[in-house]
Amino acid sequence: MSKHPVIKSRKVEISFDIPISKTLPFWDGLRQGKILTTKCRKCGKLYFPPVADCGECLSSDVDWVELSGEGKLVAYTQIAVKPLSFQNEQPYIVAIAELKEGVKALAWLTGVEPKDVKIGMRLKIVPKTFPDGRVAFVFERLPDGGPGGI
What we know:
This protein is mainly β. It has 2 domains: 18-66, no CATH class; 68-150, CATH 2.40.50. The chain has 1 helix and 8 strands. The strands form 2 sheets. It has a 5-stranded mixed barrel. Strands 2-1-3 form a 3-stranded antiparallel beta sheet. Strand 7 (122-129) and strand 8 (135-141) form a beta hairpin. The mean pLDDT is 90.
């Protein structure tokens, strides 16, 4: 029995198919080790993650472009209380980085101890394939890692 008062949470489970036909190049790119996104041909707005329709000018005329994936850390948090679907994961860090291209990205920060995480550190988005075949992306610290000129 815990020394501290606790309450039990309710079990929540959600599972559904997410349509990806309009963003299929993004998912295929991850499988090929690339970070792709969309840029509106009409107004030039760059999006990440990619979108099928521009929220700025409402155009559906977008180009697929490859991002460098390099950026600098602007915010992060260490997750200790995890959603049910992540209960088997060790505590993890969720980070936001501003990429060289000017967009912000949200992903898990891997390979860095929490005590070593510093705002301004240089990161790179890296595609990741999970054992069950899912693809996603995570941040890794760039080799020189310190605050830098991105």
